Amino acid sequence: MAALIVALVGVSVPVAWVVTHNGEVTVTPAAAGRPAAAEEPEQPQETSLWSSEEAVKAPTHTDRSPVELGTRFTAAKSGTVTGVRFYKARGEKGRHTGSLWDARGRRLAQVTFPKETASGWQEAHFASPVRLRAGQVYTVSYHSTNGTYVGSPGAGSATSGPLSTTSRNAGVFGYGTSAFPRRSNPKGYNYWVDVIFRWHERHPRSTTPRPTYTRWPTASPTWTRRPTGEPTHWPTGRPTNRPTDLPTDLPTDLPTYEPTPTVTATWTPTRRPTHWPTWTPTRRPTGKPTASPTWTAWPTPTKSPTGTAWPTPTKSPTGTAWPTPTKSPTGTAWPTPTKSPTGTAWPTPTKSPTGTAEPTPTKSPRPTHTPEPTRPQEPGDRTCDGYPTPDCTGVPPGTKLTTMRLNEGRSYRVTTAGAVLDGVHIPGDLLITANNVTVMNSQIDGMVINEFGPNTYSFKIYDSTVGPESGCQTLPGIGESKFTAERVLIRNHGDGFRASGDNIVIRDSFVRLCSNPGDHSDGIQTYRTGKGLVFDHNTVDQRGAKDITAPIFLTDPKIVDAVVTNNLVMGGTYSIQLKNARGTLIVQGNQIVDKSWKYGPVEADCDKISWKDNSIVTIDGDYNVTSVVKPLHCAE
């Protein structure tokens, strides 16, 4: 049945209808109306985001904690915001405040909602309208102290008149006291927070001469108190004799800001010398021979080198590939092994290699099919005897941590490029807004996020623990793109890693997942992922979560090239899901714990994937594989 009908105030302002029935929400935006032909051609027009022709499900979520919920939007025309609206869930209690924010997180206006109804659309008007610039990103939000709200996953973009939601991460939120909401759920939630926007349609000027007094009539006491420039907001008691042609001049008074990338692209070529390609050779002495020195070809000497890096064998090598000498070298760089190497950097293959320079092994602790090259040693490099566990990931034992004071709401924000955080404790989120940041030997109680506005920033994180000691946070532990994570322990998060862009490498890490009602828990989830995802030698335990999708959930159609190798996973509706992706897709050497899934071990586009040596296993309480049940085929 109809729950609420709202009429937007104004002579030329159309009507918005809101009807709820069995959890469905139907909204008619003010933009649906059209001014009558006899109306002034420059009367203000008003709209909100949601279309009355679209019926959407709006499930109720109960987080039981204070939360700020919002929508990020832009306007194609300059105008003013007069107020905020939100859809109130059934069972939600308490008073609510609405806010408008700019892209930098500065609050532009705030209002308390008056005379709220039990549920449905609520509306409040700011004391003064707030002027917006065309093309800029803004956020409209409301704060709930009770934490009961409606949210629709998988919401697409919304457009009404000059208004539209941002192309990605339009629905945002933040827990705690009222503050700028910058987090977004990887499921693409819409939290049904709306804005009331007014603008003027611009028409060609009339050719009829206008009297000189039409610019700013000094006889009106209302306008003589204003500065000569355009006021930042319209008073509700605007004089009726104000000239109707005035709005056509207003946008030209506003400064125009060019985005940084455009300036950089124009400036760089003009500063670069036009003779650059020929400049370098002219600096080279003309008398210097252009041929390569004889040492670059490294001819075979008649005698063996005596340097420590090249021990002298008993006989000089005769082949360019250095065949096995009759006797072992005695130099320190070429020890003579009597058995197969046992170091972690030289895993023993299951079968003897055919090369003459390597002895035949007896057993194989690790597969030989890993497609990735040997990775370089990184700061604090540690290894696990088998698959990663809490004992060999996270903050190393005995590390002394220094607690950092939060400097951005509930976050610690890094703004210096190349910054290194070593041995720190962050009692909230870590927000990275500079490139080439390194985090190591540290504990972050919230999440690690490198997205701020439309930008993401590169970082690396090693030997660190992410997540609170208790409870469960719905958000992913680490995201969004351009990051490397090694030997990271993620705990008490609904999602482990969020992959939302290019160049993501995750290795040797351990993830133990939880869930809140309404979550769709994932060990790693792709959301608008790009190229170069590597997920290698990780352990993902989802057995303790109830509201689940998959430990490995890669279903984004934007995925290009993905490597999923040598992982131990357990739990999920399906334990491994890889669909809709393109390019080189490798799933190899992974082991799935027997009968830990709900529907099946794998769901994948098998004809597109290089699938090899995956198996179903049993494990003990320390994540050691106790038996191989059977090989895992992609089509199972």
TrEMBL record:
Bias (Low complexity): 206-218, 239-306
InterPro entries per record: DUF4082, Pectin_lyase_fold/virulence
Compositionally skewed regions (Polar residues) per UniProt: 307-361
Bias (Pro residues): 362-376
Residue ranges of every copy of the DUF4082 domain listed in the record: 59-193
Comp. bias intervals (Basic and acidic residues): 54-66
SUPFAM superfamilies found in the cross-reference section: Pectin lyase-like
Region (Disordered): 31-69, 206-402
Official protein name in the record: DUF4082 domain-containing protein
Organism from which the protein derives: Streptosporangium algeriense
Organism lineage string: Bacteria, Bacillati, Actinomycetota, Actinomycetes, Streptosporangiales
